[in-house]
Write a structure and sequence with these properties.
44% of the residues lie in helices and 13% in strands. With 325 residues, the protein is an alpha/beta fold. The strands form 2 sheets. An 8-stranded parallel β-barrel has the order 3-4-6-7-8-9-10-11, surrounded by 6 helices. It has a two-stranded antiparallel sheet with strand order 1-2. Strand 3 (13-15), helix 1 (24-32) and strand 4 (37-39) form a beta-alpha-beta unit.
Length: 325
């Protein structure tokens, strides 16, 4: 699969953009463990042109995480075009436009999934963004606004006409948010359309190697984008690739590898965002990193109550000692 000049090989696996999750330290981990391309947290174009610290900070890219796409969202075309000059300075491999975020504060401003209610506006915005940058442009979107307005085939054809190099489709409507079940058949219908030429990548509920194989072999899609299945589980990409290549399932990593990975993430996160924020934001992920370990609840409570790096690393060392017994 190619995105412009970027050759990602056969059936690439992508890390989805996730707010407060897919930061540089986590993207680096996912690339290390087999993701073929990663995508930043979504970045406000309004924030970029106003030099807002949080938005500009999200432009940070580690060399080890490339290829990487920077995902933007906004509702004002002039501001979206102005943000391209800022984005191009950090030389991402791809610019991805968010037309799928279902959060009320985003859609109420006419951004994210709100574009699905006006495909002509969506096409116009996209064509102008493509015209104003030399970077490959992709789009991430949903099936439609609700079950009565599923318009993804029309939207995808419009995006192709606007000049995007690939489309990532979350198999839910905006109304579904993250509930219910992703509809991979609806995504496959886009790929099957005789006029569809650009790569079509599925997103939504792809959280096991077997599901990745279904997306490739049954639904005949060009790639898989992994979101919630990667949280606390960067190994999922290597596990999927191994299964796709061999049909064999790899076991989950042992406790020593898990702890080493958590330490690596924490070390990078502290360096990138500072100790306090790194310690606080890591708390929500410990249960998933250590999923399946027996009698882990008391250790998780210690991890989430620790308020500094030294204490955290000490607890992690004790966890290794405990589960070696």
């Amino acid at each position: 699969m190619k995105i412009g000049p970027l050759d990602l090989g056969d059936f690439p696996l992508f890390l989805a953009p996730m707010e407060d999750v897919s930061d540089p330290p986590f993207r680096k981990l996912c690339r290390k463990h087999g993701a073929d391309m990663v995508v930043t947290e979504f970045i406000s174009t309004e924030g970029l042109i106003r030099d807002a610290y949080k938005s500009v900070k999200k432009l940070d890219i580690y060399p080890e995480e490339r290829p990487v796409a920077i995902q933007i969202f906004g509702h004002n075309l002039e501001n979206m075009l102005a943000s391209l000059r800022i984005i191009e300075k950090v030389e991402p491999d791809v610019v991805d436009i968010n037309y799928g975020c279902p959060v009320k504060k985003v859609v109420n401003k006419g951004a994210g999934a709100a574009f699905l209610k006006d495909p002509e506006r969506m096409q116009r915005f996209t064509a102008e963004i493509v015209r104003h940058t030399g970077l490959p442009v992709t789009v991430k979107t949903r099936l439609g606004w609700d079950e009565n307005s599923i318009n993804i085939v029309d939207v995808a054809l419009r995006m192709q006409e606007a000049g995007v190099k690939a489309i990532f489709i979350h198999g839910r409507t905006r109304k579904q948010m993250y509930g219910g079940t992703a509809d991979w058949d609806a995504i496959a219908a886009v790929k099957r359309h005789p006029d569809m030429e650009i790569p079509v990548v599925a997103n939504g509920d792809i959280d096991t190697p077997q599901k990745a194989a279904l997306i490739r072999d049954h639904y005949k899609l060009d790639g898989a984008m992994i979101g919630r299945g990667a949280i606390g589980n960067p190994w999922i990409f290597g596990q999927m690739r191994h299964y796709l290549n061999t049909g064999e399932l790899l076991p989950r990593p042992g406790v020593e590898e898990i702890v080493d990975t958590v330490k690596e993430y924490l070390t990078d996160a502290i360096r990138w965002k500072g100790e306090r924020l790194a310690v606080l934001e890591a708390r929500r992920h410990y249960a998933k990193y250590f999923k399946g370990l027996p009698n882990f609840k008391p250790w998780r409570m210690q991890l989430v109550q620790a308020d500094n790096a030294e204490e955290l690393f000490g607890i992690l060392d004790k966890i290794v000692d405990e589960y070696r017994k």
